[in-house]
Amino acid sequence: QVQLVESGGGSVQAGGSLRLSCAASNTASICMAWFRQAPGKEREGVAVFGRSGITYYADSVKGRFTLSKDSAKNTLFLQMNSLKPEDTAMYYCAAGIWACSFSQSDYKFWGQGTQVTVSA
Q1: Closest to 22 in 3D by CA, of 90, 76, 95
Q2: What's residue 27's pLDDT?
Q3: Contact 28/89 with Cβ under 8 angstroms?
Q4: pLDDT by 10-residue block (mean), the chain, 120 residues
Q5: What pLDDT score was predicted for residue 28?
Q6: How far is residue 24 from each of residues 3, 15, 42, 65, 70, measured CA to CA in Å?
């Protein structure tokens, strides 16, 4: 069982930055990822941190978002720069023990979400 707690969301203007944090009860042998869901839209994968430390990003955030992990604190970070209004969504941290992909079905454990709002 893995418990996940997100923090760091908020409201910013376009072009601004936020850093999301996901504190996990343990991160051994798991994949971790960030998903987001905007109102009226399906949940989509944003970034994945694989077991070997390889990171993957959705095309929509590539070059603007950066994943990092503090293994000592079991915490995953998502640095979000050059934010756009279309980045507005509830952001969810997820962890899984299977394939590290952008598929929601690969993740068994989910946090409660943190809201990110970007104004024009």
Answers
A1: 76
A2: 73
A3: no
A4: 94 98 85 96 96 93 96 93 98 91 93 97
A5: 73
A6: 6, 29, 25, 20, 11
- How far is it, in rounded angstroms, from Cα 85 to Cα 16? 10
Q: Alpha carbon of 110 to those of 3, 6, 70, 86, 101: distances in Å?
A: 8, 10, 19, 23, 15
How many whole angstroms separate alpha carbon 103 and alpha carbon 79? 21
Q: What is the model's pLDDT at position 30? A: 83
Torsion of CA 72, 16, 119, 43, to 10 degrees: -40
Burial class (CB in 10 A: 0-12, 13-18, 19+), 6: buried
Q: Give 18's strand partners.
A: 80
